[in-house]
Amino acid sequence: MDMEREEKIKIAITAGIAGLILLILILFLALSGKDSKSDEQALSDNITKYASDLAEGSQAASDASSEGVSDDAATESTSVVPYSEYVNAKKGTVSGNSFYETKSAVLKDVYKKIKYDTDAQLQEMMAYFADGNEEAVRDLAHLERFEAMSFSLDGTKDFYYHGEVNGNGQPDGIGIAVYADDQYYYGHWKDGVRSGDGKWISFYPSYSQYVVTEHMYFGEWLDDMPNGHGQEHYDYNQDYMNDADLYLQNAIGYFANGYYNGEQYIITVDKNYDTKEWIGTCDMGNWVQVLNTAEDSKGRIAVLSERENADNHVWMVKNKATDNRVLGIITGGSITK
Known about the structure:
Helix content: 25-40%
Mean pLDDT: 78
Shape: globular
Strand content: 25-35%
Largest sheet: 12 strands, antiparallel
Radius of gyration: 27 Å
Distance between the termini: 101 Å
Order of helices and strands: HHHHHHHEEEEEEEEEEEE
Number of helices: 7
Low-confidence stretches: 24-97
């Protein structure tokens, strides 16, 4: 009887311990789920606050991901880039870029009490540009005193300048300028406008939760715009890239008044940061349909051919494969003090 009683006690204790462990596990899972949901909501709220227009098109991007490839090309062709199509269709405007639609950097109104010295800061940055030290240029651009300097130009086309000038006091020769939206230009000028070789960079602030982190063009300029041979380049935050889109990383070729013009060597990148190389031809920003291809049943045309597999194409809606250019460059301003 004593042994039977002891056995029952052991069973009861074991059952009690098992129940306690189960209760702890249930509480842990419940609390973990709550924290995860809070974190996801916080991230969603932050993204929405910084770029509400992206939230406006989020459902469209999701719908677009099921578009698939051309009926005629089956699995051989890359889908038309959907995001900018659907977002712009919703806004009733025409896409400014055939790839992922981008926008300029947005600086917050937090710089009013920060002091800056335009000439000293531009002189400092110009030295690094001249040495080809792009990392130092980038570090300076993200300092508050540099962002405050750019923010002071918000809403204008004007710029602060340091460098060579002509007899009329206009930029002429080599110089550096800062514009609104954290944009900088270093290179050659003629009679007050960018002409010759130069580099333009649009930096995005460190607090930005937008997919683009940096946008640049370097090459030949004329009359304040990319004209001649050059290269456009984008850097992205991989955390904010989606599965539906192709993202333009590099466009190398000839430009006319900022538009792609002539044969273009294109590099795209996806969310996994896998890259592909493409060849295509633009006529003043309008993609030319690839030879020996036909418009598909969805009104799309092949505009790019993969460099190492000419039978693989990027397909775009015909009336959207237009207006391809370096977006966002502030032009038409003059020196301000």
